[in-house]
Design brief:
This protein is an all-beta fold. Helices cover 0% and strands 53% of the residues.
Length: 97
């Protein structure tokens, strides 16, 4: 069961021990609705440029630069390349140790 909120969805899951719990699932944010406010890594749906130029749109970790208005994808030895993004979401928190 999924229930949508502004930027997250909640889902009931059953753990290996059989305990049911509710977990948050990030939801995609349209670039037409909102953009990141500072430079940090996000998961994005890249539709043009970068590695998407070689085939179909893809999901990848990219950065948005609010000062330049550019989305940047690291393409290895070449460095960062400007890409076109339609949707993005925050990355999940690090796993608990």
């Amino acid at each position: 069961m999924l229930k949508e909120t502004d930027e997250q969805q909640t889902r009931a899951e059953v753990s290996k021990s059989g305990v049911e719990r509710v977990v948050s699932v990030p939801a995609w944010i349209s670039v037409d609705e909102r953009l990141p406010t500072h430079i940090y890594s996000v998961l994005a749906y890249v539709v043009a440029g970068g590695f998407a130029a070689y085939g179909e749109p893809m999901k990848d970790i990219v950065c948005y630069n609010p000062k330049s208005g550019e989305w940047l994808q690291n393409v290895g030895d070449i460095g960062d390349e400007v890409v076109t993004v339609t949707h993005w979401m925050d990355l999940p928190d690090d796993p608990a140790h």
